[in-house]
Amino acid sequence: MIRTRIVAIALGAAAFLPGSASAQSAGAFMTNPAFQDPAPKSCMTTFDMQHCNAHELRLADAAMSARYSALRARLKPAARQKLLIEQRAWLKHRDRSCLAKGDRYRGGTMSGVVTTQCWVDVTKARAKVLAAR
After folding, report:
1. Residues 42-67, buried b or exposed e (16+ Cβ, 10 A)?
2. 31 touches 128 (CB < 8 A)
3. 121 in Cβ contact with 59 (< 8 Å)
4. Distance CA 78, CA 123 (A)
5. Structure confidence at residue 6 (pLDDT)
């Protein structure tokens, strides 16, 4: 029973790991049920590294979203629309550029870790940019 559950979780996670043939978004990754909170106590295996990155990405995304919402609330309608378009473009660029960064590892075990760490790093950077505006 326990072994069956572990295999099912691993197979479910594998379907969402970056670097696979089916590219995904950071949003799909951080909501993957295989990587639910809390984060592992240790991030030693590649699976645990991805789990830790999913946790960090959720935190970074929440901070970025809060800064985006605060900025949006201060803007006039035309500027709000411009910010929305900018944010949507940024999200697409984040996903594409980080997937490309991970693809350099050609599907190796570190491919997904590199991709997910990139998502964390650029999301934190975006939060800082939004906060500075």
Report:
1. ebeeebbbbbbbbbbbbebbebbeeb
2. no
3. no
4. 25
5. 42
Classified as helix, coil or strand, 131 is: helix
Residue 74 banded pLDDT, cuts 50, 70, 90: very high
Helices (H), 31-108: 46-74, 77-103
Residues 6+ apart with CB under 8 A from 26: 57, 61, 91, 94, 95, 98, 116, 119, 123
pTM score, two decimals? 0.81
Q: Rounded CA gap, 55 and 36, in Å?
A: 8
Radius of gyration of the chain (CA): 16
How high is the mean pLDDT of the chain? Answer: 85
Tokens 């639910």, residue located: 36
Our CA angle for 35, 40, 46, nearest 5°, is 70
pLDDT of residue 23: 55
Residue type, 98: C
